[in-house]
UniProtKB/TrEMBL annotation:
<feature type="transmembrane region" description="Helical">
    <location>
        <begin position="231"/>
        <end position="252"/>
    </location>
</feature>
<feature type="transmembrane region" description="Helical">
    <location>
        <begin position="359"/>
        <end position="379"/>
    </location>
</feature>
<dbReference type="Pfam" id="PF07690">
    <property type="entry name" value="MFS_1"/>
</dbReference>
<feature type="transmembrane region" description="Helical">
    <location>
        <begin position="51"/>
        <end position="66"/>
    </location>
</feature>
<keyword id="KW-0812">Transmembrane</keyword>
<dbReference type="GO" id="GO:0022857">
    <property type="term" value="F:transmembrane transporter activity"/>
</dbReference>
<dbReference type="InterPro" id="IPR036259">
    <property type="entry name" value="MFS_trans_sf"/>
</dbReference>
<protein>
    <submittedName>
        <fullName>MFS transporter</fullName>
    </submittedName>
</protein>
<feature type="transmembrane region" description="Helical">
    <location>
        <begin position="201"/>
        <end position="225"/>
    </location>
</feature>
<feature type="transmembrane region" description="Helical">
    <location>
        <begin position="295"/>
        <end position="313"/>
    </location>
</feature>
<dbReference type="InterPro" id="IPR052528">
    <property type="entry name" value="Sugar_transport-like"/>
</dbReference>
<keyword id="KW-1133">Transmembrane helix</keyword>
<dbReference type="InterPro" id="IPR011701">
    <property type="entry name" value="MFS"/>
</dbReference>
<feature type="transmembrane region" description="Helical">
    <location>
        <begin position="134"/>
        <end position="156"/>
    </location>
</feature>
<dbReference type="GO" id="GO:0005886">
    <property type="term" value="C:plasma membrane"/>
</dbReference>
<feature type="transmembrane region" description="Helical">
    <location>
        <begin position="264"/>
        <end position="283"/>
    </location>
</feature>
<keyword id="KW-0472">Membrane</keyword>
Length: 393
């Protein structure tokens, strides 16, 4: 039964990869082309988009009686409905923001249960390997979709309604596959929200991840769009490179989690993020003539790709929590609490970043990001895994 469920979840992850590729390639350009948003407006959009991330801990608490698999089904349905409505029912900016909330709730509801389901399907000692395989196939689907998108956009003008509709269909297919999995219900029908001191380091890492993540989600693409005047085809191409590397990189991160441990992976992530932030901030300051005139753009694109790859470190935060969890019933609620804490920070970072961008320049947004990465490194160094065997989920 576990093998069948693992296969279904793998294929479901591939369909999610299709939707995520379409989102990554079109979301920012959709708002730029259809609503002509400014930097300030784009940052304010993060308030409704990230609000579901704060609410997810409460919504998950109400849905825990369903179990992780049924919650994942609901999450994919919400994502499908939201994505379809953004593409086909966006008659005004305000209405579109309401559909963004629906779409975002589906995405955020999936985050804590996706890793939890993957860990349930893994044998002891192979948790990182299994999560790496799931993420690797998801990335392979992302790659294929990015290639197709890049080729199509070379010859055909983008129709956002078609693009978002395809993404919605893929989410719906993922929902159907997950529904066919064996449901694992929670041992308790009601789970109180809690914050336990045993998980303090996990919470702190989640908060810093929220700050770091939002800088790149909001301002990374916006630098390419506004500073370097790049369009949808560029993001499709970057998605292609990210996914092509990610097919091998994400399983390798899973291997490193099992062999080297979570502290190694998370400290390495922090060090690489410092370099990425530095690249974003100072790429345009590099002088160049002739063949080197695009150096700044290439460096910025490389930073974009590396940052996307480093999201694989989320697996290490999840497996770290599994290893320190007091009992298995704490895992999903604590993952969702971490996401909510992460998003409390996420809602304010875009606003603060836009003030810094407008007052001093975009470079200083990424200098601030480097400072956050340094704090993340310091906390990651404090990770200690108990000697006893981690609990089974």
């Amino acid at each position: 039964m576990k093998k069948k469920d693992f296969t279904l979840f793998l294929i479901a992850g591939a369909f999610m990869g299709i939707s995520q590729s379409i989102d990554s390639s079109t979301f920012n350009n959709f708002f730029n082309d259809v609503f002509h948003v400014t930097v300030t407006q784009r940052t304010l959009m993060e308030l409704p988009r990230e609000f579901p991330g704060i609410m997810v801990v409460f919504v998950l608490g109400m849905l825990l009686f369903l179990g992780d698999i049924r919650i994942a089904f609901v999450a994919n349905i919400l994502s499908a409905l939201g994505m379809l409505a953004i593409g086909c029912l966006s008659k005004s900016f305000g209405i579109t923001m309401l559909w963004v909330i629906v779409y975002s709730m589906g995405q955020h509801l999936l985050m804590p249960v996706q890793n939890s389901i993957g860990m349930k399907l893994a044998e002891e000692g192979d948790v990182g390997k299994i999560l790496g395989k799931i993420n690797g196939l998801n990335t392979a689907a992302f790659l294929v979709t990015s290639i197709i998108t890049a080729i199509v956009l070379r010859y055909v003008k983008l129709d956002y309604r078609v693009a978002f509709s395809i993404g919605a269909i893929a989410y719906m297919a993922s929902a159907v596959l997950i529904f066919k999995m064996t449901p694992y219900k929670s041992e308790s029908k009601i789970k109180k929200l809690f914050i336990k001191k045993e998980y303090s380091l996990f919470y702190y890492l989640s908060i810093l991840n929220g700050a770091r993540k939002q800088i790149f989600i909001t301002f990374g693409p916006w630098v390419l769009i506004k500073i370097f005047n790049q369009g949808v085809s560029t993001f499709a191409l970057l998605g292609f490179f990210t996914a092509g590397i990610g097919i091998f990189f994400k399983p390798y991160v899973g291997y490193l989690i099992d062999s080297m441990g979570e502290r190694f992976v998370l400290t390495a992530e922090a060090l690489l993020l410092i370099l990425v932030c530095t690249g974003y901030a100072f790429a345009k300051s590099i002088p160049g003539t002739g063949l080197l005139t695009n150096t700044a753009l290439y460096i910025t694109c490389a930073c974009f790709v590396v940052d996307q790859l480093l999201t694989a470190a989320t697996m290490a935060r999840a497996t770290y929590l599994k290893k320190i969890a007091v009992n298995s019933e704490d895992i999903s609620p604590t993952l969702s609490m971490g996401i909510s804490m992460d998003h409390v920070v996420s809602m304010f970072i875009p606003w603060l970043g836009s003030l810094i961008w407008n007052a001093f320049g975009y470079e200083y947004v990424f200098i601030a990001g480097a400072c956050i990465a340094i704090m993340n490194f310091t906390l990651a160094m404090k990770i200690k895994i108990p000697m006893q065997k981690s609990i089974s989920v």
